[in-house]
Fold:
Amino acid sequence: MDSDLYLYNTLSRKKEQFQPINPPFAGMYVCGPTVYGDPHLGHARPAITFDIVFRYLQHLGYKVRYVRNITDVGHLVADLDEGDDKIARKAQLEQLEPMEIAQYYADRYFIYMDALNVKRPSIEPRASGHMIEQILMVKQILDAGYAYEVNGSVYFDVEKYSKTHEYGKLSGRVLEDLISNTRSLEGQEEKRHPADFALWKKAQPEHIMRWPSPWSDGFPGWHLECSAMSTKYLGEYFDIHGGGMDLLFPHHESEIAQCQAAIGHESVKYWMHNNMITIQGQKMGKSLGNFITLDEFFTGKHASLEQAYSPMTIRFFILQAHYRSTLDFSNEALQAAEKGLKKLMTASETLNKLVPSEATAPDSGISELVNSIYSAMNDDFNSPIVMANLFEGVRMINSVADKKETISKADLALLKNIFNTFLFDILGLKNEKTNDQPELLDGLMQLVLAIRQKSRETKDWGTSDQIRDGLQKLHITVKDGKEGSSWNIE
RNA sequence: GGUUUCGUGGCCGAGUGGCUAGGCAGCGGUCUGCAAAACCGUCCACAGCGGUUCGACUCCGCUCGAAACCUCCA
Structure:
């Protein structure tokens, strides 16, 4: 099963043809959220990026197993002296089990990702549910001689590993630089080498999340869960591993080392990384305190938001940039996205009402449109180009509706197919209008517009405008065309 | 300091060695009772300086500027 799909592999820093290991199956692992805070705009980017990858691979006919983890381990420290871990504080103050906090935010994550029309992955494993696998992997690495135990903690021996393997190949780092640049942090004295990282950490008394292990009551190292769970569900060698660029080092670098040490070979064929969302040129992130939660976007309740932005506006906004570029947030950009989305959705409604003619005139090249959309997707998931092409389709649709152009039956079917396939199925955008009683509303509107038409015929503009303005207040726009008036819910 | 990546018009954002990105906003026009929407036309670019080339926004070098990672973070 050969495909024309090319994707950018961070490991080689080149676009490579996608050739799955076991076609028609495709395995994909993406680093999911750490559930100790409300999901924000930054969470939406990888979720949507890899949602597109998931959807497109399925569209191409692959049987995709998409695994995205939930990190619910090791970040909840009850020590209130340092940091601003409000969740731990909350857990302690309200006498909550830490897992209650994790559950709460995991649920929140699902709700908001559903709102963004992000498909649920095939498997969403939790780190806390895979202690056995993680402990087993630590043992494997110890047995292989690439780890050592100190006081109940186990560390990965980066120095030894780097003698026979290239630690830093993914992020382009050199070990010597890592030595000289690593800060001396508390608790590092146990490590033989500053670049070593924890596979298992003995829990300090204040650490409230802990599990028994052969070495100590403690918790697994940050990088371990992904290696253990990807191996469990996707095997020792799988196709795609994705995540945010900020995870490149040390997280993914360490995953590579862990798998190499435990299994004896690398586990990932293609590494994909989405770029960050910035706010005034700076990364939007938890640590910087400049993030805006999805809930705040949807409700408009945040000081830097001029209005509320719907889930699909956010999705459109994100898809209008290529996933490997930074994307700068601003009200202006969001408002542009909102208008663009509306234009696209209105056109998709118009499309369903279009009447075909004998031929397409002028010959506007709808099949070329299809080709260039596929080329764009195949070129490392270039969603902005896909959208630009869809807007070309919008122009055609509106021109036909305006009777300035005509479209053949075959071309119309083709155009409908493109919109259904790409706009809705692959880009995953959807019409957000809600209408529970379409017949009732339609009947009412026909009546109201008939009355207005009468007033227009007698040039009673006062009544005519009163009706139109009144409807506008209810977010129903009336458009007067050559063949009577039409209406639209905003 | 090291690693990685950028610098495109009023805003957001694609792309290419010579030929239109696209969206939003602006301007002019068509349509309309007036609008709205739509369509047509149009203005505004490729950080700076060198080099390669018949030709560079696109390749190379330097300068300036910005970001991410090196510590939990999507």
Remarks:
- The longest strand of chain A covers residues 238-244.
